[in-house]
Design brief:
Elements: H1 5-14, E1 27-28, H2 31-41, E2 47-52, H3 58-66, E3 69-74, H4 80-86, E4 93-97, H5 105-109, E5 116-122, H6 128-137, E6 144-150, H7 151-158, H8 168-176, E7 177-185, E8 190-191, E9 198-205, H9 215-225, H10 233-236, H11 242-251, H12 265-274
Parallel strand pairs: 2-3, 2-5, 3-4, 5-6
Antiparallel strand pairs: 1-8, 6-9, 7-9
Helix pairs in contact: 2-3, 8-9, 9-12, 11-12
The protein binds S-adenosylmethionine.
The site of S-adenosylmethionine has 23 residues, from strand 1, helix 3 and strand 3.
């Protein structure tokens, strides 16, 4: 497969395909970027890779050469001619033409034998967070996620305490994963060129699992703590046992006038555990 804006446009034209903005179709047309994503994903032989949104198959093609199987979900059925052409020689790729958010991934992956499960994708920006949330909420045990996302969204995923991007979403995701930025990606490598900047982020399963006694209480506490970001914990957590919360905060040199954005995930875990 040849990669360049001209070649990919020609491939789309030959197959009568028109790009659709509503599906977040910004295809990568630079082979160096695709190679860098695949290299950084560090895919082992015995890996099943799930790709959400193969588009014109540029990334899929390269994934196919390093993974054991590649399972793709593509919402736009009219890409089938393009994908059949591009992936003609890739016998280890399966494509399910379906909205990933409505798919039964656990059932779909059952038929494969593999040692590692990765998600590698250039995600459609309009559904980035729902896709990551689905992977977690459906209990799909992915070892690693390497995805291209809108820069602002990626920054929120990996944000640390005390930064403007830190939110309940950062804590929710970092409860499961260690998240880091792998690289910046220029707008110029896409067809069509998007309005936003992109980064590639990786999510690796946490090595040290946090000892949370009651997960639903922990998540509710975090959500409530950030409900009004500029307000103190005393104001946001009126319905909780504030004495117990203050006891924990004191150990870290804080009191109830602290804002949620200052507190680490470990402190939230301790507070939640103290409330039981
Ligand atoms: N992987 C290709 C690439 O990098 O060139 C295309 C990436 S493009 C940003 C996103 C792709 O996701 C498009 O092909 C789009 O049709 C597909 N898509 C959008 N929403 C989807 C959904 N809910 N489920 C599955 N695929 C979706």
């Amino acid at each position: 497969m040849e990669y360049s804006p001209k070649r990919i446009q020609k491939l789309l034209d030959e197959n009568g395909f028109h790009l659709k903005k509503m599906f977040g179709q910004n295809f990568i047309v630079d082979e160096n970027i695709i190679d860098a994503i695949v290299r950084k994903a560090d895919i082992k032989d015995n890996t099943l890779v799930i790709e959400i949104g193969p588009g014109a198959g540029s990334l899929t093609n390269k994934l196919s050469s390093v993974a054991k199987h590649v399972l793709c979900y593509e919402i736009d059925h009219s890409l089938d001619c393009v994908l059949n052409t591009v992936l003609e020689d890739c016998s280890n790729v399966d494509i399910i033409y379906q909205d990933f958010l409505k798919s039964n991934v656990k059932e779909d992956i059952r038929k494969y034998s593999y040692q590692y499960l990765y998600v590698v994708a250039n995600l459609p920006y309009y559904v980035t967070t729902p896709i990551i949330m689905k992977l977690i909420e459906d209990g799909i045990l992915v070892d690693k996620i390497v995805v291209m996302v809108q820069k602002e969204v990626g920054n929120r995923f990996k944000a640390k305490p005390g930064t403007k991007d830190y939110s309940s979403l950062s804590i929710f995701l970092q409860y499961y994963f260690e998240i880091e930025k792998l690289m910046d990606v220029s707008k110029n490598v896409f067809l069509p060129k998007p309005n936003v900047d992109s980064i590639v982020v990786s999510f690796q399963r946490r090595k040290n699992k946090l000892e949370v006694k009651n997960e639903s209480l922990f998540f509710q506490l975090v959500k409530d703590s950030f409900i009004q970001k500029r307000k103190t914990l005393r104001n946001n957590l009126k319905n909780y046992d504030l004495e117990k919360i203050e006891e924990v905060l004191k150990q870290y040199g804080y009191d109830l006038s602290v804002r949620a954005e200052a507190l680490s995930i470990e402190i939230f875990v301790e507070i939640a555990n103290a409330l039981i």
